[in-house]
């Protein structure tokens, strides 16, 4: 993971956001939808990796994850993260890997992501989440 303060220990704020990201990963992989959706603000917006329309509100985001996890398991692993914190807002972007398994077939999908977090009443919540498949056809030397 890359942080703005290169080489320094993560700040308290960064540690709190990193903890939220770890819980997001854990809850999605364990299909804990109530816990997963509790990490999103009521007015959050999501452009999910596997949909073509934006989901706005926690209820709509929950339906996305219900559809995703209905007939398959999904394990997610962060491959790269870049975190920046500003007062009561934080932004994290990078790559993650989804391993989807429907009992007969396993597929890995690498996706770019960006998440914006906002601290409300002392609690960090995801307010914006964008995720899109990384184009597998990009040459390796294009950065």
Structure characterization notes:
The chain is of the alpha/beta class and 143 residues long. It has a single domain (12-133), classed as Nuclear Transport Factor 2, Chain: A (Roll). The chain has helices spanning 12-29, 33-37, 58-69; strands at 2-3, 40-47, 55-56, 73-86, 89-101, 106-120, 123-133. A seven-stranded mixed sheet has the order 1-4-5-6-7-2-3. It is globular and about 45 Å long.
Looking at the structure, the CATH topology is: Nuclear Transport Factor 2, Chain: A
| Largest beta-sheet details | 7 strands, mixed
Considering DSSP H and I runs of 4 or more, what fraction of the residues is helical?
Answer: 10-25%
Question: What count of structural domains?
Answer: 1
CATH level 1 name: Alpha Beta
Provide a compact summary of the structure.
By secondary structure, this protein is of the alpha/beta class.
